[in-house]
Amino acid sequence: MLNQDHPDDERLSALAAGDTEATDDATLRAHVTSCDRCADAVRDIGVLRAALADLPDIAPHRPLRLLPPVEAETPSAADRLGLWARRLFAPALTAGAALAMVGVVGTALPTLGGMAQSGGADSASGPSERTAAVDAEASAGQELAAPFATGDAATGEADGGEGATTLGAGTDEEATEDVARDSAQADELFAERSPWPMVLFAGIALMIAAALLRWILVPRAG
Amino acid sequence: MAEAPKTTPAARTPPLQDEAAVIVRAAAGDRTAFTQLMEHYQSASYGLAWRILGDPDQAADATQDAFIHAYRAIKSYRGGIFRSWLLRITANASYDILRRAKRRPSSPLPDPEEGAPELPDAGAVNPLEEATKSELYRHLERALRLLPNDQRVAVVLCDVYGMDYNEVAAMTESALGTVKSRIHRGRLRLRELMAEHRELFLR
């Protein structure tokens, strides 16, 4: 029989295994009964399958753990919370410590720097310079008022005295406004610095919260 | 040889005597009963894992993974042949390890006769096994190792452990046609590899 007449070898394997798609194929079965080569293949595969199905079990080469450890059981809700608290403890503590450190440095640097560095000196002396300027304006106002006072004094004591008082009062009000504005600016300067202590406290709070959560949620032995 | 028994061969672990009762106790959380079951079937599980992975340590790992899965799943065990149930779990655990090891599907296992891992003593379970059968098993195990990974896994699950094509396809996440083709090609290759040992089949 010519080679090209043989069915595909995979069909012979299917026939040997009793797959219905092959056993239902009358042409295939007819060919195998009349072809020694294909009959041999089907028989060999049948024998091979029987031997494979007969392969024995194999004893493990080392003792096996037959039971999973108790921890492998599904943890209770409380255990899971404890697990999370334990997992989050180290990162939260680290983050808290880092925050606190940043807070300490942030709080301390301007104070320390204020004594030594020019940047700090600027912010520290800013308000006092402005106060000096206000003093200068105020005294200038008084000087300006003075000639009127003296001029008025020449014409009439009572009027001049009144004018001098009015003018003097006016400059005093301006000066007070300036001082108020300047102190508001100073407050803003302080407000710009205020995040650092907050960061420090937030860091400490985070560390305390992590420690507390762990203490409360993680079950203790005994 | 063609008359060789296909179901529960002597060299394969038979069911425990009071298996149903032991399973009920294990499912109720009795750890001693579960241990008894695993101890009884450990050679069956390990044998399957070894044939899929071809490495003793990986096979031991896969078997222990399977026992952990079985421990969790036994509460939902709904009858059937316990050995088959455990072997399906073992096959999944073994295939997971095989996949994680990222072995190329087309490469075979290292040839035990060229060094590397020793073949287990096939007669260890049944010391009275005839010498001829032991020799046949040894050659068959070696021939299986020489198959490409994907063909070996398919032939082992189907022809050694009697799973049907659909089960093998689901387990290996492959198309049914692909699995059939792997099995057929694997058998044909095994036939070639075993050709020089024909006399062992005919005795």
Radius of gyration of chain B: 17 Å
Rg result of chain A: 49 Å
Tally of separate helices of chain B: 9
Order of helices and strands of chain B: HHHHHHHHH
Low-pLDDT runs of chain A: 118-170
The portion of residues assigned to helices of chain B is: 55-70%
The SS-based structural class of chain B is mainly alpha
Largest interface: A-B, 35 and 58 residues
Q: Tell the overall outline of chain A.
A: elongated
Biggest β-sheet description of chain B: none
Mean pLDDT of chain B: 85
Distance between the termini of chain A: 84 Å
Q: Work out the oligomeric state of the chains in this entry.
A: heterodimer
Question: Into which percentage range does the β-strand content of chain B fall?
Answer: under 5%
Reading the helices and strands of chain A in chain order gives HHHHHHHH
Helical residues, percent of chain A: over 70%
* N-C termini distance of chain B: 7 Å
Strand residues, percent of chain A: under 5%
Question: Main β-sheet of chain A: number of strands, strand sense, barrel status?
Answer: none
Look at the structure and give the mean pLDDT of chain A: 73
Explained architecture:
The complex is a heterodimer of chains A (222) and B (203). By secondary structure, chain A is mainly alpha-helical. Helix content of chain A is 80%, strand content 0%. Chain A contains 8 helices and no strands. In chain A, helix 1 packs across helix 4, helix 3 packs across helix 4 and helix 6 packs antiparallel against helix 7. Chain B has 203 residues and is mostly helical. Chain B is globular and about 50 Å long. The N and C termini of chain B lie close together (7 Å). The N terminus of chain B is likely disordered. The chains are: A mainly alpha (222), B mainly alpha (203). At the A-B interface, helix 1 and helix 4 of A face helix 2, helix 3, helix 5, helix 6 and helix 8 of B.
List the helices and strands and how they pair.
The complex is a heterodimer of chains A (222) and B (203).
Chain A: H1 9-16, H2 20-23, H3 26-34, H4 36-53, H5 77-116, H6 118-155, H7 157-193, H8 195-217
Chain B: H1 19-27, H2 31-53, H3 56-73, H4 82-100, H5 131-145, H6 149-160, H7 165-171, H8 176-194, H9 198-202
Helix pairs in contact in B: 1-2, 2-3, 2-4, 3-4, 6-8, 7-8
